[in-house]
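Structure ticket #2291
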Amino acid sequence: MMRFRAIAFGLTLVGLIFAMPSHLLAYTGEKLAKGAKVRIEDARAIALKAQPGTISDEELEREGGGSGLRYSFDIKSGGVKYEVGVDAQTGKILENKKEGRHPD
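Resolution: structure written out below.
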């Protein structure tokens, strides 16, 4: 009986981890966050205002355009995936486009 409880508890924890939205876990580029003026929580809100939907992936990256440091969000909306870029220094939208067949 004790073994059954331990297995059930373990499966419950694994289920909770996979059920958590990805934005509650660490994101790619998190080490760059100390150089960002805009917090990821604020960048998420900006991205979702520009492109309502569900965030499926997010990262902070160095990329040309704007200040050179941007949050990049993959947002699913109506069965379509969009990439939305938010400048990590100013909060301005740098990109809001439908992803093609071969996304980056």
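Closing remark: The longest strand covers residues 54-62.
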